[in-house]
Amino acid sequence: MNISFDALPMISENMSGIGYCQAGLTGEMIKSHPEDSYTFDYFSRKDHEVKRKRLSAYMRANCTLNESHFSGFLYRSIMNIIPVPYSLFFGKKADVTHFFNYIVPPFVHGKKIVTIHDMVIRAYPETVRFRTKQLLLTGMKKSMKRADVIVTDSEFSKSEITKYYPQFADKIQVVYCGVNTEKFYHIEDRAVIEKTKQSLEINGEYFLYLGTIEPRKNLERLVEAYRILKDKYGDIPKLVMAGGKGWLNSGIYGRVQEYGLEDSVIFTKYIPDEDICPLMNGACAFVFPSIYEGFGMPPLEAMACGVPVVSSTEASLPEVVGDCAVMVDAYSPESIADGMYRIYSDRELARDLAEKGMKRAAGFTWNRFSEKLHGIYEAVLR
Question: Which domain holds residue 33?
Answer without folding.
Answer: 2-178+365-381
